[in-house]
Automatic annotation (TrEMBL):
Ranges for domain Peptidoglycan binding-like: 169-231
Name of the protein described by the UniProt record: Putative peptidoglycan binding domain-containing protein
Keyword 4Fe-4S assigned: no
InterPro entries named in the record: Peptidoglycan-bd-like, PGBD-like_sf, PGBDSf
Leader sequence residues: 1-25
Length: 239
């Protein structure tokens, strides 16, 4: 059987993509001389590319089990080169937020050689995250470990917040969870304490950290560059 040129070229492209850790959608001719169509299981009109475990980072923009969830992500990230994947056919890593089941599909940009670039984006965009293409990873990247301490803002107790501020407060609260979990601290921070608001419980836990661990006396409850440095040096060495 003679294979036509219209089939050979897409197959070569698919093989080249696979060698780079990207499983590209295979393009085939429906029939000799017919139009080529790209695999797009949700028919959302963006590239469908599964990813292998290469150790790279991806910027997770959204996820879900339906076309509507992926389309919503595309609409709300007009400046990103959005692609999507099937979690069942991609790297077995952490694709969803804590305590959530992995979705069927993930919309993303990347992959990137290191988490630094997507983390810089992540800290300006609500609800986005950074995942590592490493098998068995059970959490998202802690972006405070990928950015210079000088880039981390001063956080102060407040009953109010903004979308931009809430991103950093959640990063702080998630860091406190990981530190307390690693140390086995009784009554430490837990997932339910992540509010995006620098509330009384967060202030109290920051003061305790300053007094007991960081040797910052008197404690202020304010997360300045010295407190960020004390948090990240302990958090990041455990990751």
């Amino acid at each position: 059987m003679r294979v036509g040129r219209g089939l050979w070229l897409p197959l070569v492209a698919a093989l080249l993509g696979a060698t780079a850790g990207v499983t590209t959608a295979v393009v085939v001719d429906d029939e000799p001389g017919g139009p080529a169509t790209t695999q797009d299981p949700l028919d959302v009109k963006i590239p469908f590319e599964n990813l292998d475990c290469t150790g790279q980072a991806v910027y997770v923009l959204g996820y879900g089990d339906t076309a509507a969830a992926i389309r919503y992500t595309v609409i709300n990230h007009p400046d990103e080169d959005v692609r999507y994947l099937s979690t069942a056919s991609s790297c077995d890593t952490h694709w969803a937020r804590k305590n959530a089941d992995d979705p069927a599909y993930v919309a993303y940009s990347g992959p990137y050689d290191s988490p630094a670039e997507p983390c810089a984006k992540r800290m300006t965009a609500k609800l986005d995250d950074v995942a590592l293409l490493i098998e068995g990873t059970d959490s998202y990247v802690q972006c405070v470990c990928e950015l210079p301490n000088s880039d981390l803002p001063v956080l102060e107790p407040s009953d109010e917040t903004t979308p931009e501020l809430a991103i950093w407060v959640r990063a702080l609260q998630n860091a406190l969870i990981d530190l307390d979990t690693a140390s086995g601290r009784e009554g430490g921070f837990r997932a339910g304490d992540v509010t995006g608001i620098f509330d009384e419980k967060t202030e109290r836990r920051v003061r305790e950290f300053q007094e007991e661990v960081a040797d910052i006396n008197p404690s202020t409850g304010i997360v300045d560059s010295k407190t960020w440095a004390a948090i990240t040096v302990r958090l990041c060495e455990k990751l």
